[in-house]
Design a protein that fits this description.
Length: 432
């Protein structure tokens, strides 16, 4: 009899985006003439930079000639031309020293943040922010690091559940959270940057600039996390997918700008939002050679060769054409063109922030991130406000509660729309 991996049965159905889709479809059926504007999706809208297109066209032609054709990338971790461009432009230019064999090119940060947990122990305690990008949580549930209802805890070798723990499990379940995962509230009070927890955790997921809140972490805030991880011998998974949207020169783009981070942090970067690569697919992870994890009997082992083994066993590399496109993002023309697109999105963000502030809303984010986190009017819940915007302004937002209980009372607006749509949506909101 074929058994199923029961960890997958603990997953809650993906609820947020299907539910938004359902409500929007219903509205459109009832109002076929309404022009609905989406400020909800986290996908880009501007086309690829011309420098990227030219590089990819050249690479396609190379693939069509026997002298320049390329098959497998033998390294399996990305062509040296791309890893060199990454090391020089994303790190050396900011005073951070990263070596070529610490870069692992992949087809996305979703996969990288989802896969990285695989090489770490199953008994590790996972900490995430609330609200959170669901990939970090769901992939750990699939791996067996969360308790479902009625399932014995595996954490820390306990073999019986005490009543306190059962109570906590019931509470987590009632909030739509998983027992066994540590959720760190990101609230207006802490500037949406949670402090390290007062208990030991082992695997910490941080995302700055943040999706969904648009918050960024100062160097001091990241330094506290690095210090915590060093003391606890924990690892930080630092998702920097929105790094390119930082405008404040004091905000670090990489966690390695903090001293000591190379010993405790893995960083993820993606071309998706930076260069409009959501449909092209190219990203990378940095796994420093100083990073260590521990066997059950306390022996330190290097993480970099283990990730190399994992990555090259299960993945055969990003296409040559894509890697040439990614390399072109770092060319002088590429940099200029990509920056123009980011400036366009950030001009949208600033329009949204200004308009909503004038209308009396409290807004966060949108200055170093493409997301604006809007407080709903007093007494109006996330979903209630979503329905109001849809019905009265025909504007789609994302209810904050869908990212976690601390997102209740907020909606997320994105700056990825076309500028004329953003302006029209804001005019409609002004007439509410
Ligand atoms: C969009 C996004 C990514 C990018 O994922 P890709 O798989 O590289 O497209 C990563 N992390 C967060 C939080 C995101 O919102």
């Amino acid at each position: 009899m074929i058994g199923i991996n029961e960890n997958f049965l603990k997953l809650r159905a993906g609820y947020l985006f299907p539910e938004i889709g359902r409500r929007v479809r219903t509205f459109k059926q009832e109002h076929p003439d309404a022009k609905v504007i989406s400020m909800g999706i986290g996908d880009v809208t501007q086309p690829l930079a011309p420098a990227v297109l030219e590089a990819m066209h050249r690479a396609v032609d190379e693939m069509g000639r026997p002298e320049t054709f390329r098959g497998y990338d033998d390294s399996g971790v990305g062509y040296e031309f791309l890893r060199r461009a990454i090391v020089e432009n994303d790190f050396a230019a900011r005073g951070v020293s990263i070596e070529l064999d610490e870069v692992f090119v992949s087809d996305g940060t979703k996969c990288d943040t989802g896969n990285m947990q695989e090489i770490f122990g199953i008994d590790n305690v996972v900490a995430v922010a609330d609200p959170v990008y669901p990939v970090y949580v769901d992939t750990n549930v699939m791996a067996g690091r969360a308790r479902g209802e009625g399932i014995l805890p595996s954490n820390r070798g306990q073999d019986a559940r005490d009543t306190k723990e059962q109570g906590q499990d019931a509470l987590a379940t009632s909030r739509g959270q998983y027992a066994g995962i540590v959720y760190m509230p990101a609230t207006a009070e802490n500037g949406f940057v949670p402090a390290p927890p007062d208990r030991p955790v082992d695997m910490i997921y941080l995302c700055f600039p943040n999706n969904p809140t648009g918050a960024v972490a100062t160097k001091e805030a990241l330094a506290r996390w690095v210090e915590y991880a060093r003391v606890q011998k924990a690892v930080i998974f630092f998702d920097a997918a929105y790094e390119a949207f930082i405008t404040d020169p004091a905000i670090p783009h990489s966690i390695y700008e903090v001293e000591g981070a190379r010993e405790v942090a893995i960083e993820f970067r993606s071309g998706s939002k930076t260069a409009g690569f959501t449909g092209v697919r190219c990203a990378y992870s940095i796994v420093p050679k100083q990073l260590k994890a521990y066997t059950r009997d306390g022996r330190a082992v290097e993480v970099n060769p283990i990730w190399r083994r994992r990555h090259t066993t299960k993945f055969n590399g990003v296409s040559y054409i894509t890697q040439r496109g990614a390399e072109a993002v770092y060319s002088p023309e590429g940099k200029k063109q990509v920056q123009q697109t980011i400036d366009l999105y950030m001009a949208n963000a600033s329009l949204i922030r200004d308009a909503l502030t004038k209308l009396g809303y409290t807004v966060y984010g949108g200055t170093n991130a493409p997301y604006i986190w809007v407080r709903t009017p007093k007494g109006v819940g996330s979903w209630e406000f979503f329905d109001l915007l849809l019905n009265k302004a025909n504007v789609v937002c994302t209810p904050g509660a869908g990212f976690g209980p601390s997102g209740e009372g907020y909606v997320r607006l994105t700056a990825f729309g076309l500028p004329q749509n953003v302006r029209e949506a804001l005019e409609r909101l002004a007439k509410l």
